[in-house]
Request: fold
Amino acid sequence: RTGTLPAPRGAILDRDGQILAENVPNIMLNVIPADVPKKNPDREIFLDKLSAAASISASEVEKILMTKQRRETDPVTILENLPYEQAMQMMVAVSDIPAVSVVAVPSRYYPTGESTAAVLGAIGTTCPAVTCTAAYTWEKGISSDGSVVYFPLWK
Reply:
């Protein structure tokens, strides 16, 4: 099956090396509608398992699947910006549910605030400060050619 992968974008720094924009992981719970059972009772079993794993009602899952559907093979996001620990628990909980996956995609984070996005040009979703700053810090280093580089250091 083919899918769309977002292109990675690098951090944007000011002349003093302060980060203006960076990519952070946005961990999401996705469902592929084409793989969801179409008929009851299999559909009800699927919705019950997913709602138990995601801690939301089966009717809410059904509503999300119906309102956000573009193509049957496009993933539909049920939950996003999951903290790492919750995402790992979710991966285990949904491992036996077909059509469901936990994925991490890059999301833009602007440490100086969303107003910076208007100047730099935001495309796609941005990450809330609460989830972005808790995951890692940026460390300064020197590359093999002597230039200054910044890299994420997971906490």
